[in-house]
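Researcher: Here's the sequence for the chain we discussed earlier.
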Amino acid sequence: MEENERKPVFTNTYGPSETTFREIYRYARRPMRIILIVLLVCIGVYVAHHLYQWIRWAVYYNESIFSQTGVWMLLAELGVMAFLIVWEANGAKRYAKRQLRRIKESYGTDDPRVHASFYDGEVEFHNDATNSTSRMAYDKFATCKETKDLFLIVTREKQFLLFPKDTFDGTDIVGFRAFMDEKCPNTKRKWRKAD
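Model: Thanks. This is the structure I predict for it:
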C-alpha cells in the first residue's frame, strides 16, 4: 500500500499548553516531591519538639522564650520550610511558563501544532512549525499513563509525549486504551477507571 493511502487508526492534533506542561512537571517531579514531603515532616517534628522544650523552659524559669538563640534558629527553619512549600507548590506553574516561553522563542509562535497519527505499526508526528515529520515504533514506549485530561506517554529515552483527550479526532477513549494495550503489551500502563 502506498504511504499516502495509509489510514491512521487514531489521530490527535495538539499544541503546547500550560496544562500539558504542568502534567509533565508533576509526573517527573513525583519522586522528588515525596522526598521533600518526608524531609519537611521530619524538620517539622524536630522544630515542634524543640519549640515545646523551649516553651516549657521559659515557663519554668519565667523568662521570655525569645531570649534563647535556639528559638531564633527554629523560627529560621520554619521560614525555610514555608519557603520550600511555596516554591514546590508553584513549581509546575513556573515550569509551564518557562517551557511556553522557550517554544515561542524557538518556533516564533506560541502555538505550534503537532499532528499525531496512530497507525498499526507506528506513530507518525508532523510538526507544522518546522514542517517536519518523524515516526516512532510502539516498542519505544516505556510508560502509558492516563490523567483526567490527557494521555501521557514516556519513551525509553525519557521523552514525554502528551495527547490531550479533547483533541482526538472522533475517538472514543476506551477504544484508544484498547489500541494501546494491544500495541504496547510490554509497556507499563496506568489507565483511569471508567468515568
